[in-house]
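thread from #wetlab-drylab

HS: before we spend reagent money on co-crystallization trials with magnesium ion, can we at least see a predicted complex? here's what I'd submit
DV: go for it
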Amino acid sequence: MTSTAVVNQKGGVGKTKLTINVGGALAETGARVLLVDLDPSGYLTDALKVAPADGFTLAEALTSSRRARVEPVRHSTTGAGGVLDVLPNTAAMLTVARELDKLRGREQRLARVLAPLDGDYDQVLIDCPPTLDVVTDNALTYVQRVLIPVQAEDTTLKALQLLLAQIAAVDEFLRTDPLVLHGMVVSLLRRPASVYARSVLADLDRLAEQAGLPILGTVPLSVVVTEAARHGRTVVDYAPTSHHAEVYRALAQTLETAR
Ligand SMILES: Nc1ncnc2c1ncn2[C@@H]1O[C@H](COP(=O)(O)OP(=O)(O)O)[C@@H](O)[C@H]1O
Ligand SMILES: [Mg+2]
């Protein structure tokens, strides 16, 4: 089982859509995939139109003093034998960060919740909230690697520096082995790219080099992404021959071949 956090404390950079569609592309190849919706807004849960889970919610399991088993919800299965499951989120997650601050092992809670599911999945993708809080720290403590969607904007570089500092702190204090910086994905890119976007991309290239954080691909703006979500489906399923399906398959491939 390999695990990846899709993380960036900036909102609206494409985390949720990337998690869903890379997850769909992984399932298409036959992988058993679990998507964890860690954002209190629950946009991933909504976009995939999954029903609430039976039993404990993620919020309850994270704050419970006992080991509480959470049950993922099946979104779909694929012809290749893959599955796409979701650990949905509820509004109760809104207060979890505050509650965790009072609890022991507050950064290791997600690892405890997900441990019993380890053998059931090949790939776990975590859709992080748009904050660098204790909930995000839980994801950064649990996963093996991070996938960072970014937009071609000036604010991106500052946000990335903050995120890399947070990752360094988590490596220092909470992990035994350092997080693997799997790479960045340039999201929501308007085509053709403007002169401005191209100059930001050049800056990003430099940062990618310096930080050892490769740019893995580009997801242009497209209605196919929002249309698929409107139907509760992934892009590879909804529009299998689209350019975007190919983009998500290529990104999924980078996760499958990573160590
Ligand atoms: N490639 C894309 N083309 C068009 N719209 C997109 C694309 N990716 C994301 N969006 C839209 O942009 C907004 C932000 O994306 P989202 O994945 O929710 O970002 P985040 O999770 O980082 O807040 C959403 O309304 C989403 O539907
Ligand atoms: Mg989101």
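DV: The longest helix spans residues 155-173.
HS: ok that's useful, forwarding to the group
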